[in-house]
Design brief:
It is a single chain. By secondary structure, this protein is an alpha+beta fold. It folds into 2 domains: 38 residues, no CATH class; 76 residues, NADH Oxidase, CATH 3.40.109.10. 40% of the residues lie in helices and 16% in strands. The protein is built from 5 helices and 3 strands. The chain has a 3-stranded antiparallel sheet with strand order 1-3-2, with helices on both faces. 6% of the residues are buried. The model has no long low-confidence stretch (mean pLDDT 93). Bound molecules: flavin mononucleotide. The site of flavin mononucleotide (FMN) has 10 residues, from strand 2. The site of flavin mononucleotide has 10 residues, from strand 2.
Length: 143
Amino acid sequence: MYPDGLASPYRDRFAAAAAQRYASLGIERADPDRPTKIATLNAAAFGAPAVLFCYLDRTMGPGQWADVGMYLQTVMLLLRAEGLHSCPQVMWTVYRETVSRAVGAEDGLVLFCGVSVGFEKEGVPRLRTGRADMTETVSFIGR
Ligand SMILES: Cc1cc2nc3c(=O)[nH]c(=O)nc-3n(C[C@H](O)[C@H](O)[C@H](O)COP(=O)(O)O)c2cc1C
């Protein structure tokens, strides 16, 4: 899902976000069954009743992968406009052969990610994972 040897600060941010998200779901870092529990939650689409699977043509390059990310962001905003919530899950790519068989994806398509879709469960403590400060991620040049 991520490049081998993912460097800092990306690796640290990824680990921190995952720790927050899964701790909020009752899975602590020290839990020996953590990987299995995480995989199970993801594969259950976090309880959502529907999953979109987003593919692109295998011949496409980095620019088109970026296009697909922007496209999916728009889909997620449109879902909000309909009162729905969603969660992109790159984890589905680990099971890409099974997913492609299940959805009948044509040869030549590559799975980008799944997006779980459903209505927010009321009454569950809402976690907003931390974000790096804007000064770490954005450079403003000029006035
Ligand atoms: C492209 C993409 C793939 C993701 N894949 C996963 C995933 O496989 N499993 C997971 O738990 N979170 C995954 N995430 C993170 C969550 O979908 C979500 O964005 C994150 O928890 C932040 O949620 P928040 O904005 O409500 O704080 C992914 C995010 C993106 C943008």
